[in-house]
Write a structure and sequence with these properties.
It contains seven helices and eleven strands. By secondary structure, the protein is an alpha/beta fold. The protein folds into two domains: 118 residues, 3-Layer(bba) Sandwich (FAD/NAD(P)-binding domain); 91 residues, no CATH class. Helices cover 31% and strands 21% of the residues. The chain has a four-stranded parallel sheet with strand order 5-2-1-9, with helices on one face. A three-stranded antiparallel sheet has the order 6-7-8, with no helix packed on it. A two-stranded antiparallel sheet has the order 3-4.
Length: 229
């Protein structure tokens, strides 16, 4: 009986006061699972992301190597959370967190007040102090990154198709992927096997060569800056 009364009183208090506001920055795996965990809770949940889609990054290399199209690895955030009544999705980028005022400042100056804040913005790429490498070795974090890598890879095959010098043709068909995770190995295999895809119908290009390189951070300064150049 006491527990029933306590539940009734808590429900009455929550009904008389504004629901606490939880703001989630980022809708990758962390942000999405946090939002879903709050489904049905007496809270207002606002998800802020600088894209309007959730990206399944483990398969992003397939987009980069022309194996999959973007809709196969990305889905609109609003569609994913369509059945979650307490969730709102905002397209925007957080530029600053005003902790004293408990507010998130977005690009354009808009502010979102919060009672609780979850920061799930993911990790940034590191070139170990050599930011000039970024122009030659694009990262693979977003659909835009995947499109750029795919453009470079397919263009390399097209250049190789026109090249008459065997040595220069082999250079166009040589790729390097740096990293030691599963995506690195899969990306290397996929890039090397593009030639075998019948849809492209290249006639003069031999099989591509793709090497995966894994270096410890302390040795990274020895890596080449000519990756996918």
């Amino acid at each position: 009986m006491a527990k029933a009364v306590a539940r009734y009183l808590m429900a009455s208090i929550l009904a008389e006061t504004a629901a606490p506001h939880v703001v989630i920055l980022g809708c990758g795996f962390g942000g999405l699972f946090a939002a879903r965990a709050l489904d049905g809770a007496p809270l207002r949940v606002t998800i802020v992301d600088r894209t309007n889609h959730h990206l399944f990054q483990p398969l992003l290399y397939q987009v980069a190597t022309a194996g999959l199209s973007a809709p196969a690895v990305a889905a609109p955030i609003r569609h994913i959370l369509a059945d979650q009544a307490n969730a709102t999705v905002i397209y925007g980028e957080a530029t600053r967190i005003d902790v004293a005022r408990r507010a998130v400042v977005l690009d354009g100056g808009d502010e979102i007040a919060y009672d609780r804040l979850i920061v799930a913005t993911g990790a940034a790429n590191s070139y170990f102090g050599h930011e000039a490498w970024a122009a030659h070795a694009p990262s693979l974090k977003t659909l835009e990154d995947a499109y750029e890598i795919r453009r470079r890879v397919l263009l390399a095959f097209e250049r190789a198709e026109r090249e008459t010098d065997p040595a220069k043709r082999a250079a166009w068909l040589s790729f390097v992927v740096i990293g030691g995770g599963p995506a690195t190995r899969c990306a290397a295999n996929s890039a090397a096997s593009i030639r075998a895809t019948r849809a492209w119908c290249w006639s003069r290009t031999a099989s591509a060569c793709c090497r995966a390189i894994r270096r410890a951070s302390r040795n990274a300064r020895g890596c080449s800056s000519s990756v996918l150049a």
